[in-house]
Structures are given as structure tokens and as C-alpha cells.
Amino acid sequence: MKEQLPRLDANPTLRERLRPYCRLGPGDVWEDPVAGHRVGVLDATAADDVSRIMNGRRASLLINDPPYNLTVGHANTPHLSKTDLDSYLHFSWQWVSACLDVLADHAHVYVWLGADVNDHFQPLPDFMILMRQFAQVRPRNFITLRNQRGYGTQRNWMWVRQELLHYVKGDPPFQVVYTDIPKILRGYYKVVNGRRAENSERSKAPTLRPGNVWVDVQQVFYRLEENVPGCYAQKPLKAIERLIQSSSQPGDTVLDCFAHSGTTLLAGERLGRRVITFDNDPIFAEISVRRLERYRETGKTGWQWQTPFPELTIDD
Ligand SMILES: C[S@@+](CC[C@H](N)C(=O)[O-])C[C@H]1O[C@@H](n2cnc3c(N)ncnc32)[C@H](O)[C@@H]1O
Asked: Angle at CA 142, nearest 5°, toward 124 and 9?
């Protein structure tokens, strides 16, 4: 029998059984003895919590992936719940303020966000307008990640996009990270060395600069090694690593206030950055720490379809 872990946030009985295996409780912070990362069970909307886990450090890169105010998979849960828009904007205002307080003078800020087509595209445009209140940061870009697998009915365009807002404070350094991103349009010809060459032919160069539409990142699903069962909101490691490489230097502090499966923690570990991260759910904080430990022990980036909690037998 395969040990599958269902969605953790939406399963109260399972959550109850997992809690004794979580080393951190509300308010606790785990200090990594190896690379100085910190993982906590804290609240992103509480400025005191954010400043406590930073412990005097300043982040030159913030990567936040808050709940999108959607009802995901028909389940409304205490940790990823849908509320009215005003409450969501209040929640957003609180975490943005708390995070801006701990940024370095020059910093990049990335925020993943969604637009609910069944609810007037909230909260993406509302969040963008809210951000105008924060004079410390200004918009730098608006990235769309194209999912390889979409969802929706035959009666609508398939939904394959994820949005990523990019802001900056001050004038932080930025390094282009070249990629194997393919050129996807055909039919654009240019004469090269007297020969007519097709656009896709010229894209064979190994050094292409990614634009702000990323079509080369596979979203996480159960067949990938990096999959963390139970964490359905997991972001691809490749996307987070691209942000870290382009927008921070080795040794910098990276902050992520919505840890979930610990993707930013793992990406920072692999790239020599110090990561400060937390989730208000002790189970996701535990998973983040376990993911880091497992990576150090085995080199594996996730559990694929095994469980992060082998202590517990999951009934079919
Ligand atoms: C969309 S997920 C983040 C996914 C993450 N980027 C990854 O790759 O795994 C959002 C996370 O925020 C957490 N969360 C919700 N409200 C929070 C709050 N006020 N403070 C800290 N974490 C919170 C949820 O428990 C959830 O794990």
C-alpha cells in the first residue's frame, strides 16, 4: 500500500494526529545549527513576530506566497480560508507593513498572487492598488508563470497561469539568470550568414534571458521528486531558485513568511543564502524543517509520493 498524505490543512482528524510529531508550537523558532536558517510558527500579520524571527537581520529579498483568498478544491480551511475582500486586504496590509519594516535599504520583493475569475478577479487587482500605499517600494515587473497542466471546462479557455508581482525598495542589484527557456513562436525568419534561419532554430543558444512570461517551469505534481505530499500549494523549486539567483547575493538573508512546504528554505540552502521563514501552521513548519533535513541526508528535494511523516500510518 502506498502511503499517501491528503491535503493537510483540510483534514482536522489527520492534523490532530500529526501535531505530536511537530517539534515547534505557536511562537517557537527553530535555529538551524548548520547554515543559520530559522523556521518558526508565527503570524505574518504580527509585526512583533516578524521582527522577532529576524532577530536584527535585514532581508535583501522577500518572497511571499500568501493564501490567495480562494476556496481551493472546495475546501475552506482555517489556514487558507476565503474571507471577504476587505478582511483580505487588511490581512495583506498587515503582512506587507510587517515585512517592509525588516527589509534592507536595497531589496527585492516578490509576491505570488491569484485572480479569482468567479469573484471579479479579486484579489490581484485590489492587492496591486493596495501596494500604492507603500511609498517605500515601487513596481519593477509582473511575471506570469505558465503552468504545464491547466484546469477548467471545455467551455472556457484553460487556466494555465500563475502571477508573480515584483517590487523593489531602493536600487538593489539584479543578475540576469540565463535559462533554457524555449522560444515558442515559429515563423519569424532572419538571414544569418547568408542563410534564412527560423526563429526556433536560432533559439538553440544555451543562453537565453527569461522575459516576464515563464514557460519553462513545471508546476509541482506527484510524479516529481520535489513533490511534498499534503502541500498542494507548493511552488516549483526552479522558479524560486531563479528569483534567489537573480535578486540576491550569496550570504544574503532571504525572508519568506508563508513557508508551507519550505520551498524557499530549500532553494536558499542550495544556493548558499540564509533563509528566515515561518508558517502559522505548526505542521507546515515541521514539514519545512524535515524537507531541509531530508535534502541534507539524501540529496532529495521532496518526497515524491511518500509521506513526510513516516511515523504515522495513513489508513486508506
Ligand atoms: C500558498 S501557501 C505557500 C506555498 C509555498 N510558497 C510553497 O512553495 O510551499 C500559503 C501558506 O501560508 C500559511 N499562512 C496563512 N496565513 C498565515 C499567516 N497569517 N502567517 C503565516 N503563515 C500563514 C498557510 O498555512 C500556508 O501554508
From this structure: 45
